[in-house]
Amino acid sequence: MAKQRKTLDERIQNCTTKEEEMLEKLKQYQAQRKQLERRKKEEERKIRTHRLIQIGGAVESVLGRAVTEEDIPKLIAFLKKQEANGRYLSKAMQHSTVPKTSEGGR
Fold this sequence. Notes:
Radius of gyration: 31 Å
Structural class: mainly alpha
Strand content: under 5%
Distance between the termini: 86 Å
Helix content: over 70%
Shape: rod-shaped
Largest sheet: none
């Protein structure tokens, strides 16, 4: 049996069908990418929120009381002053490269 060749119209239709399938797949990949980007932003937001809560808790534990709305500008001004005077906060927050010594055989 001889192999039948497709007509040009059939070949055009075949290309059109494949193109439509590829466009649909592209839409699916774009939707998947957007969903992953949203999930990434949500995870980053949760990590940031957790960090901010920890910082607020640390400040409250040092003060021995809850931080109020009125305290926030004072805290910001204090931290800015410390930075301007000698970058005390930045120096205190730097990671030490010196290994910690063991305490009491721990």
